[in-house]
Amino acid sequence: MRIHGRREPTVVTPGLGSSLAYLLSRAERSVNRALAAALSGENVTVDQWRILQALADGRGHSMGDLAEAALMPHPTLTKAVDRLVDQALVYRGHDPTDRRKVAVFLANRGSELLGRLDAGIAEHHRAILAAYGAARTEELMRELEQLVRSLDD
Fold first, then answer.
1. Cβ within 8 Å of residue 79, ≥6 positions away
2. Which residues contact 37 (CB under 8 A, 6 or more apart)?
3. Which DSSP state fits 41?
């Protein structure tokens, strides 16, 4: 697939090409490479964008819930959140449902940053639709959601 003028090299990998895990990893790598390019203008990484996006619901999230939502190991998430706190993009506060717990919230600067990233994210999505087709992309997303639900049950 070609997104933003880059083409994933075709590598003949006997055996690996029949592995679902391998193919999903290759697809993720290609999609995230293009996503990283879309975010680079604001010096935001894909992991940081996931964190900010997960916090965009305004509810505040525990570190455990945020790690799951952002697809990050807890120690890596902690370092990333610390950097986002230093940049005043997120802040820590009391969990609204249990004041004994700490939650992470999106700061106004983080919300503004997400707004500035919208155009690049939309262009990234359009590039995928153009390369793979809207109907196929929607079907792939539905199938991947179903795969995740099936494996998590």
1. none
2. 4, 124
3. G
